[in-house]
Write a structure and sequence with these properties.
Helix content: under 10%
Number of helices: 0
Strand content: over 45%
Largest sheet: 7 strands, mixed
Distance between the termini: 40 Å
Structural class: mainly beta
Radius of gyration: 13 Å
Shape: globular
Order of helices and strands: EEEEEEEEEEE
Length: 123
């Protein structure tokens, strides 16, 4: 059982920045991702990173968000710049062990989740 703890959410104005962190209890998995869910909407993938470093982004955040990991600290990050009101939502980190090594998959394929951290962007 992998435990994940997110932090770093908050309220910012449009155009601002936030950095989310997610500490994992172990590194037995090979895919990590950030997901978000706005009220009344389905959970969506935001950014993904494989253990060997390959990354992927949702089209809506590409060029604004950067996912990274510090393996020595078992920590996943999401640097969010140029935030927009439509980025508002609960942000979750998640992890899974992918047989194929492909990490850009729907949220329901990830089997370990953090509790979430709220991001609110005002216009």
């Amino acid at each position: 059982q992998v435990q994940l703890v997110e932090s770093g959410g908050g309220s910012v104005q449009a155009g601002g920045s936030l950095r989310l962190s997610c500490v994992a209890s172990d590194t037995s998995t090979n895919c990590m991702g950030w997901f978000r869910q706005a009220p009344g909407k389905e959970r969506e993938g935001v950014a993904f990173i494989a253990s060997y470093g390959s990354t992927g982004y949702a089209y809506s955040v590409k060029g604004r968000f950067t996912i990274s990991q510090d393996n020595a600290k078992n920590t996943l990050y999401l640097q969010m710049n140029s935030l927009k009101p439509e980025d508002t939502g609960m942000y979750y980190c998640a992890t899974m062990k992918s047989v194929s090594g492909y990490c850009y998959t729907p949220w329901y394929e990830y089997n370990y989740w953090g509790q979430g951290t709220q991001v609110t962007v005002s216009s």
